[in-house]
């Protein structure tokens, strides 16, 4: 075995069996090693941000770490933004980045660059393989790092000669260390806080879906506290059967109102609330000044254990009250954002995964689907545009039996539009809904939020994506994806039914 | 004036009047300041790599520094790969990156990230504005840094409160320090080296186009040395009226042959030759072991002065022999890469700018156009894929009266395909020739170069961009660009004529 082969064998022996790739020459021996192992699933992305965004959502939906395969410093640069989102989502991703052979790095070749520098700016752990014999051990340590704290960004730099040289035997990644837990005194203090009037339980990570969410609902109900979540989260269970939950708002004034009655806040798996952006004269911290915050269990600690301890201390044995399914009628008339949402609520299949990068446009969809069939909803928690379509790829690879619905703006979709091809190539069941509002609506709003008055020609040029309009049906066809254009509710409902029924990806341009 | 306004005024007062933008909320006051100044040309790019690649080629063609406007760490990440190319091209780029307000950075907001870390991994200079009153001075220092050493990557991090707070008066960027020059003894030694049998003058930067290239040709001719250049360069003057020049080769064995008779090499504005990648058992250094290398004038030193000093010492007064224009007939029959090149040579207008990211596909075009009408040719000197279309944007903005011809592969075009929209939005005269070979041909070749045998299913999945085929005419239409598909020489010639004649961008799918 060469080093690359020992690395792939280590990954497979350690339970990593999926690799989102955008390789180059310096990774060719790793590609050859993947080629020897049909058990390793390789998904080709035509841009590195597609690979990192897919690995992010793959982890969010499966709990498993996938690898990305990237080409030197520029390749890592292209993956950076979606690794930022993955990091904020608490997702584990293992980046394998090729570099020049160690002896070649002393010369100024075209692709020589600061791989350690760019990867160090976003990774929790960076390991550079030093020799082929140690690559298996390096790989097992890197994989373990990706699994630490519930999921981290881990990068393994693989100089070409450590891939082609003689490798050692395959290794197996040791399990990550146990997650830290708050001590009993802190639990008792948190219980005290949660029982106060105006208490909120702000949760994140595994407390937002599946059994963790039920447990969080049980704790909040027993304490009489409001169950809350950050604005943008990696994954949240929604719809029928989930406990009611209040999400923070984007606009500062709204968020201040959402938190206005909060006198005590206990954080479990979530960071303290903060305004998305800073604005002149507006607060960074949205909660009332007299609100006491108990940071009980930071992200990366043992969220489920903490909730169980709270439930025990509260005697919270009763199942939480949950939302009863309420499916609306399909609306009629011209298409609006809200009507897109209501139609989605009417037709949403059980177990759907909604990937939401609609920015300003998906608010209606979020509100209208609160009582829809049970589903998971994925945000872009780092706020870096370009996560949506790659996330949809990763979610669909992780959950081939669940329909994926990607909500995106026309502005946001353009950052990583190449992901459409991967959806077609892999026959992924993704319905892409593009809200075609012809520009960066969020920037128009933000300019208002900042009180900057009416935009002039230079500002308009930076906010509008028109002249020419993007042609979304042509965009779909260009990437081999079927599509429809919907201008009214009936057309949108038809298109959504078709998209959900037909195998493979389907793009709907929603003209709103 | 607020800080942002003082910054824009500083830029305009210092001769920076073009900004390639992909802004977000944290840059909104900078956007408003740009809006107040109609003299500042703002070009919207739908992805940050489009902005950085455009600024790169803008500098290569105009010699002027443009700004990019980027949104926090993820936005910089998206710009990274094309800044790598710009750095290797010796281009000056000034990145203005917004960040959260200074007081907001203490909180874990979604977009909080390591802006200094990611920008430090590629920039020559990073300046973080500390307060609004100092932004004008910071901006003038950052612009000066971008103009140093002939052109550098300079980054100004602009926390939002330094943009909206009270700014000081506009500043003017001081001129950059004089470029270093080799001392007379080194010049004399280089002259001695150049007069030897088997001498080569390896040049880069300003020695590769315009008067610098004529001067380099004069020096080489007077010394009896071979005029040479690296494989990938930022800009090279070619065609009728330019001195004959030998470029290094990509394949190691070919490059060893190209340099096989070289006994002495003098470097002026170029790095020493090195293989593009390392391969087992193949040399990193392609020149013969007994070839003496004189590193007379590193990139970033005073190349033109050095050539003038060499010309003086050699008594090189005679104009160099140059290539006589030889326009071929338009070929007939099925389309091949060489025939694309010959047709291009036949129809190339005087003063065309060819942006070449054709990778394996544009070799024929490069060879066939050696004696075409005078033109400039731009490579992707950092080897980071995704430079081509953004470079075409920047070249066309810099030189509105010259036709731009972008050669790209179907694999490489997909990295930054959004640049098509900017070409349409700005009505740029760019003819995009897509060599549709349905995959990463370079990877297929590299696998052979490495002796790794016939690829299996996993490798093929990583090399092929087919299933589905990309539909290039639909891709053009999606972005508002007119197009044609050419399967034979007559069709290609017709399409090229149309593209060169019609205003605005035109895409040709060349089925080869």
Characterize the structure shown.
The structure is a homodimer of 512-residue chains. Chain A has 512 residues and is α/β, with parallel strands linked by helices. In chain A, 38% of the residues lie in helices and 17% in strands. Chain A is built from 20 helices and 18 strands. The first copy, chain A, has helices at 3-13, 28-35, 48-62, 72-89, 115-120, 135-147, 160-164, 184-194, 210-223, 252-258, 303-314, 337-347, 363-368, 388-398, 410-413, 419-425, 441-449, 457-463, 472-478, 489-501; strands at 18-21, 41-44, 66-71, 93-99, 125-128, 153-159, 199-203, 226-229, 236-238, 246-247, 264-268, 292-297, 352-357, 375-378, 404-409, 430-435, 482-486, 506-510. In chain A, the strands form three sheets. The first copy, chain A, has a seven-stranded mixed beta sheet, with helices on both faces. In chain A, helix 6 (135-147) links the parallel strand 5 and strand 6. In chain A, helix 1 packs parallel to helix 6 and helix 3 (48-62) packs across helix 14 (388-398). Chain A is globular. In chain A, 63% of the residues are buried. At the A-B interface, helix 2, helix 4, helix 5, helix 7 and helix 16 of A face helix 2, helix 4, helix 5, helix 7 and helix 16 of B.
